[in-house]
Amino acid sequence: EADRAVAGGFEGVSPFIHTGFFCIGALTRTICRPFDKRRDGTVLGEGAALLVLESESAAAERGAEPLAILEGGGFAADGVHMTAPDREGRGLQRAIAQALVESGAGPADFDYVNTHGTATAYNDAMECCALERVFDGRPPPMSSIKSTFGHTLGAAGGLDAIISIRAMHEGVLPPTINGGEEPEREGWDFVPSVSRPVDGLRRVLSTNAAMGGNNTALVLRKWEG
Q1: Torsion angle of alpha carbons 185, 186, 188, 191, nearest 10°?
Q2: Is the pLDDT of residue 150 over 90?
Q3: Residue 9: CA atoms inside 13 Å, Cβ hemisphere, count?
Q4: pTM over 0.90
Q5: Is 108 exposed, middle or buried (0-12, 13-18, 19+ CB in 10 A)?
Q6: Which residues contact 5 (CB under 8 A, 6 or more apart)?
């Protein structure tokens, strides 16, 4: 509908927001450990993350060098609870399925998943349920940046997309700081503790799951000219 759009969001942490997350039991009393059996909650962060989304012809017109191609996107709502997700991750699975259909990519075409990964009791478990079905029990390496930046709320989706794009260009898998050492699922690669150099990082799935059961998924491919 438009040649160019600015996409992303921002959030500033306030006492009101912090108290709300505390009251629903979403904040950790120790440290944020995504996809770890010891997890007990998230930490909040703040920031802004914006991307310019434009058609290939519009980018060429202004002489811009694209960073990545948005191959597909999906959105699906659970609507099972005001704050908690569907525990089986069915809404997130539908969002991912939509993104895959739009992109034309299959489960075997992905090199990495940048997850929502809040380290809360329900989110990590439901995300694993969804990804297990999408990837037939064998997902590619996956990690969460929440324990590095905190949960930046309105900025989280944009930040995840930016980190996913930078990962492809730098050839580095972002780490799940503090998490994944006692993994939520045995045998899964959560890139625990430290980043990892990798060759051929070409296509990434980025997922987000907000309150009220709002789930999104993006398929991003490295721009290679």
Answers
A1: 90
A2: yes
A3: 14
A4: yes
A5: exposed
A6: 52, 53, 54
